[in-house]
Design goal:
- This protein is an alpha/beta fold.
- It folds into 2 domains: 170 residues, Thiolase/Chalcone synthase (Peroxisomal Thiolase, Chain A, domain 1, 3-Layer(aba) Sandwich), CATH 3.40.47; 143 residues, Peroxisomal Thiolase, Chain A, domain 1 (3-Layer(aba) Sandwich), CATH 3.40.47.10.
- The strands form 4 sheets. A 5-stranded mixed sheet has the order 1-7-6-4-5, with helices on both faces. A 4-stranded mixed sheet has the order 8-13-12-11, sandwiched between helices. The protein has a two-stranded antiparallel sheet with strand order 2-3.
- α2 packs across α3 and α6 packs parallel to α7.
- The protein is globular and about 55 Å long.
- The two termini are 17 Å apart.
- The mean pLDDT is 98.
- Bound molecules: acetyl coenzyme *A.
- Acetyl coenzyme *A (ACO) binds next to α1, α5 and α6.
Length: 323
């Protein structure tokens, strides 16, 4: 059977690092509060000349280099983002143009923080359906542009960045020993849409708007939703937490990551954590964390890796793959 195998990975971060102490004098907060409640110590913030498209392009080029491929080898680009360069065209098409690619097709995927997990699942279906042989999947965000910098309960949580993978159709035996995507489970529930949203848009206010979040409410639902969708993914593949080599969760809050891993019985040393240095980069958080763990040699070819995310909507999902 066809399996969607990761062939390369890359990432890109804005030049400017903003430390927790840099918020002092901006809003009433402290390094101690931010670290204790979230685990975040710093985040990268895009300059005017750094956009979702430029960061996405840089991550894409790094992933192509890592795969030993060029844009000519791609059939499809899926960009997960909630902070596109423009309302339209899709920023994926902008990146396609920046890569000098005039064949194939490209589109954006909007599932907020779950965007990358949704995009990997979509790419897997295009590959297994025979519509594409190689797909570039990018998560790129500039959340700094939609933050209310006077709201201390949200502005300290988010950062900017991009991560990308190249996925390629390969042959598998149909067992969980295969490399590639092995199982996936996606969910959404719009009854929670007012707990985490942006208060603007083209069809309502005609403005871009700012991120609004009832943090405590999101936190309350997060662990249960994350663990449910992971258990559904385990059931599809017939595995348990003990079989995993690496857990790469969405990097929103260290307390949510720890509580989810504890509830699932995933050993602490198998959990990849980058929220301390990146903050919450929404759809970029999972590929950025993956890129760190691949670059430092933790994730190796053949390892069983579980990706998970949860975000605005609510949307949530998990993907199990063998690297
Ligand atoms: N500095 C200092 N104090 C603060 C700050 C700050 N930056 N922000 C809030 N506070 C205060 C609050 O005003 C409140 O004060 P009060 O008790 O006098 O009212 C107090 O700290 C406690 O606030 P809580 O909101 O209860 O704090 P909590 O422990 O819940 O932590 C947090 C807040 C970090 C936002 C947490 O709720 C959280 O992580 N929620 C989930 C966020 C998340 O995972 N989002 C997921 C996806 S994001 C996406 O999809 C885009």
């Amino acid at each position: 059977m066809i399996r969607s195998v990761v062939r390369g990975i890359g990432s890109a971060l804005p030049r400017r690092i903003m430390k927790n102490t840099d918020f002092e004098g901006v809003v009433e907060t402290s390094d101690e509060w931010i670290v204790q409640r979230t685990g975040i110590r710093q985040r990268h913030i895009a300059a005017d000349d750094e956009t979702t498209a430029s960061l996405g392009e840089a991550a894409a080029r790094a992933a192509l280099d890592n795969a030993g491929l060029t844009p000519a080898d791609l059939d499809l680009i899926v960009l997960a983002t909630s902070t596109p360069n423009n309302t339209f065209p899709a920023t994926a098409v902008d990146i396609q143009q920046r890569l000098g690619m005039r064949h194939g097709f490209a589109f954006d995927m909007q599932a907020v923080c779950s965007g990358f997990v949704y995009a990997v699942t979509a790419a897997d279906l295009y590959l297994r359906g025979g519509q594409a042989k190689r797909v570039l999947v990018i998560g790129s965000e500039t959340f700094s542009r939609i933050l209310d910098w006077n709201d201390r309960s949200t502005c300290v949580l988010f950062g900017d960045g991009a991560g990308a993978i190249v996925m390629e159709a390969g042959e598998g035996a149909g067992t969980i020993a295969d490399r590639g995507v092995l199982a996936a489970s996606l969910r959404s529930d719009g009854t929670h849409k007012e707990k985490l949203y942006v208060d603007g848009g083209p069809s309502t206010t005609g403005t871009v708007g700012h991120l609004r979040m009832e943090g405590r409410e999101v936190f309350k639902h997060a662990v249960g939703m994350i663990t449910d969708v992971i258990e559904a993914t385990y059931a599809q593949a017939g595995i348990t937490s003990a079989d995993l080599d690496w857990f790469v969760p969405h990097q929103a809050n260290k307390r949510i990551i720890d509580a989810s891993a504890r509830k699932l019985g995933i050993a602490e040393e198998k959990v990849v954590v980058t929220v301390d240095r990146h903050g919450n980069t929404s759809a970029a958080s999972v590929p950025l964390a993956l890129a760190v763990a691949v670059a430092d040699g933790r994730i190796k070819k053949g390892d069983l890796v579980l990706l998970e995310a949860m975000g605005g909507g609510f949307t949530w999902g998990a993907v199990l793959l063998r690297w």
